[in-house]
Amino acid sequence: MKSVSAEEAVAMIPNNARIMIGGFMGVGTPERLLDELVRQKKSGLTLISNDAATPGKGVGKLFEGAQVSSMIGTHIGLNPKAQQQMLGKQITVDLIPQGTFVERIRAGGCGLGGVLTPTGVGTLVEDGKQKIEVDGKPYLLEKALRADFALVHAFLADYAGNLSYALTARNFNPVMAMAADTVIVTAEHIVPVGVIAPDHVMTPGPLVDYLVANG
Amino acid sequence: MDAQTIIARRVARELRPGNLVNLGIGIPTLVANYVPAGLNVFFQSENGLIGTGPIPEQGMAHPLLTDAGGKPISALPGAATFDSAISFGLIRGGHVDITVLGGLQVDADGHLANWMIPGKMVPGMGGAMDLVTGAKRVIVAMQHAARGKSKIVARCNLPLTSVRPVDLVVTDMAVIAFPGGKATLLETAPGVTVAEVLEVTEAELALPDAIPAMML
Question: Could you report the predicted ipTM of this complex, rounded to two decimals?
Fold first, then answer.
């Protein structure tokens, strides 16, 4: 784990990168990295995020300057900019059920080829997917999802990169922290090793590549 | 009593002690306001919380404690938080006793369409497909008709949320279930006659001998 500034962290991300960003409607999102992505005008991004948040908040900031070319998520209905860009075909959006979304990322982080889920069987979601019957019940094969970078927001991070999350800001963060080649973390508080008890570590330090310095 | 209150109060009567319940946005959210006194149920918010409480008082909100719409909520004693994989494991894995969802259409077979209107409204399905697929009981809480058009249709022409039929539909006019796969009128709202329900319902409804008024 290496400590970096937000500017240095985002400078590592090339245009057209595939990035996973934690958060649910902008809660539990690494806002400082989003601000820096905007400032450094990174473009052509493939965004893997649950939702498009709202304009000006969380990943919603990336749609103002049309920095996203493609999105994989579950819901974009509360961000009119993202809706417009999708309906205007400026961006492609792959909408998938939320339980499938998180399991695909989990599979990507856990060395699995994918998961079998009953969600979506018999609906538009099954188009183009393999249907597999197990013990007489149909499932869709949903393939694993990984990214070049995961941008994660924690509540506490210690000097060793161990992370814990708070309340509903945990959401997709711990799952995404396992599913990308490079993991960059911001935290509300950076604390000495030992402050997070081993039993309370939700993301073990070795998963974290870069911790963004506070202040 | 307005339409939304009728629906929310009637749905609240379906809750049983100890139930783990997920409420969708819109009318379903109102159900929490009518939980009978002394009935202990757990509400799940799919962004990672069991034990959601009322909207906090002014100045008491926590920026990291919100509902699935990103709005501040509170947490009750005994609440638990978890990541999205566990949250949807709870949902898809059959650990949620009741999910209450809004609807665009429910058809005579009990199929629900509630996530998109092709070409017009494509917000994404969020958690709806997993909820309908995995919850033990699926209750749809919606207006009976929109702009004079029945939302209880013969066959959904909007994309389905799941092939799993719902268990109960509660509207401002009626309670409908699907015993034996057939849409059946169980109750009418106070002051609404069976004939009035049939007149505004596109789907064919089976009529049991007794169709009482909703207890609210």
Answer: 0.96
